[in-house]
Write a structure and sequence with these properties.
Shape: globular
Radius of gyration: 22 Å
Strand content: under 5%
Order of helices and strands: HHHHHHHHHHH
Number of strands: 0
Number of domains: 1
Number of helices: 11
Helix content: over 70%
């Protein structure tokens, strides 16, 4: 999993956390769990973990709140808040360690190259606009990819930092450790593809349908919430372009989606008549895509700049 900081592939600080064996074969004494917990709460990583944990909690509560719009609005905001906090903690760690320096002169370059900053801006903008609109402005599906990342980050942190010290039998620790390790290894790439698919579908929906509809609403019936909707949609479209320019796997996935539509129109005699329309539509979308900042020329100037690691 490639996003949001102290992730499943984070090995830089692993020596701090892997001093105890969960296989049940080690005979070294293990510190009491309460003592370990007291030491963990002094570390930013612990609150990063809590942010991901509460993201998953509110995500479940959001989808279980079938009959309460007010409850759904609350849990939606809490999802955005908690996941924004996790990215904020990672950025804070970057700043504290000197890996990241934010100034007015380099902020645009950092936004183009640092995906943690991209996610933080996108999610915090959604959170602020949701509050300002009383929960009436949102983008359905925008949080799905970060929630998927949260699953893996939670499991990895639990396995490395909490499981070895839980007051349970060594055999149970070994079983849990093995199952979590297998899950992380076997499903990381599959869930990453799922997350990218959610981002592609969300961007296509808000960019091709939500954006023109919102512009029409602003022109014919200006309202504060319509302006906020335009802000969050533009925010997500720009975010998606940045992700697409940085991720070769996302480009490949998007091209596969387009190719499937092409093949469907060619294979179905009844759909052949729509092929010219589809070709013109793709050309229009490509031209509109080029208008979305940042420009390709600007990106090319920064491609030689080493990308900062997402993991601390």
């Amino acid at each position: 999993m490639t996003s949001s900081g102290f992730g499943a592939s984070n090995n830089r600080n692993s020596s701090n956390y892997r001093s105890h064996d969960t296989s049940g074969t080690s005979q070294r004494p293990i510190a009491p769990f309460t003592m370990i917990l007291k030491s963990r709460i002094k570390q930013p990583q612990f609150y990063w973990f809590l942010g991901h944990f509460f993201t998953l909690y509110h995500f479940l509560k959001f989808h279980l709140s079938f009959f309460s719009i007010a409850s759904q609005k609350y849990h939606y905001r809490m999802i955005l808040l908690n996941i924004s906090i996790t990215y904020g903690i990672v950025l804070y760690q970057f700043l504290k360690s000197g890996q990241l320096k934010l100034t007015w002169s380099n902020i645009r370059e950092n936004v183009r190259t640092l995906d943690n900053l991209q996610y933080f801006i996108m999610l915090s903008t959604l959170f602020i606009c949701s509050i300002l609109s009383g929960g009436k402005v949102s983008i359905t599906g925008a949080s799905y990819a970060p929630v998927i990342f949260s699953i893996f980050h939670c499991l990895n942190y639990f396995k490395e930092n909490l499981l070895p010290f839980l007051p349970i039998s060594p055999q149970l620790k070994s079983v849990l450790n093995r199952r979590i390790t297998l899950f992380l290894a076997n499903y990381n790439e599959k869930f990453l593809t799922m997350a990218q698919t959610f981002e592609i579908m969300c961007a296509l929906r808000v960019g091709l349908f939500g954006l023109p509809m919102t512009l029409l609403k602003i022109i014919f019936n200006f309202h504060w919430n319509n302006l906020l909707s335009l802000i969050v949609i533009a925010n997500y479209v720009i975010f998606f372009k940045l992700r697409l320019l940085q991720s070769e796997s996302m480009k490949l996935l998007l091209n596969q989606v387009i190719l499937r539509v092409d093949n469907y129109l060619l294979a179905s005699p009844n759909m052949m008549q729509f092929q010219p329309f589809w070709l013109r539509y793709k050309q229009l979308v490509a031209r509109l895509y080029d208008l979305v900042p940042p420009s390709l020329n600007t990106i090319a100037k920064t491609q030689s700049t080493p990308k900062k690691s997402n993991h601390i």
